[in-house]
Write a sequence for this structure.
């Protein structure tokens, strides 16, 4: 493992993978924040302490909560593939400048995507950031397969 941590590309991947993973984890508390501030809960046990009348008011969906949930779900769909493809890409020996470009663009795209989703920025801002992140993952996969394709 110590030998791996001497590899600049692997260290860069580890850094950016940690950043996007932390961003993804933070989407949980963001969703909770919106649930409490918008008084929008989906599970009966979350409002068990209230009266029946209050339960009817609290057991509902809210657009802000749903946006946060969808943003979190979108992270799961994109960051997990980035993690696996990025790890294999980093281990395939790309040059540092190319790897940094891939990792930085993906990280920036995912952070911007979350802000665009939560703040309801006009399209195509969210779509562009989504496709940019996906393009980076496909680019790393193409580079990886070009180097190690074996049947």
């Amino acid at each position: 493992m110590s030998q791996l941590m001497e590899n600049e590309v692997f260290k860069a991947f580890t850094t950016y993978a940690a950043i996007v993973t932390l961003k993804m984890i933070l989407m949980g508390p963001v969703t909770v924040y919106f649930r409490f501030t918008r008084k929008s809960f989906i599970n009966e046990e979350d409002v068990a302490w209230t009266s029946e009348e209050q339960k009817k008011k609290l057991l509902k969906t809210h657009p802000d909560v749903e946006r946060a949930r969808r943003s979190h779900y979108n992270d799961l769909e994109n960051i997990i593939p980035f993690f696996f493809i990025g790890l294999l890409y980093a281990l395939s020996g790309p040059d540092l400048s190319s790897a940094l470009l891939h990792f930085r663009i993906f990280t920036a795209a995912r952070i911007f995507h979350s802000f665009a989703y939560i703040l309801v920025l006009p399209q195509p801002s969210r779509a562009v950031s989504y496709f940019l992140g996906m393009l980076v993952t496909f680019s790393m996969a193409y580079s990886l397969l070009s180097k190690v394709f074996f049947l």
About this structure: The CA atoms of residues 7 and 91 lie 9 Å apart.
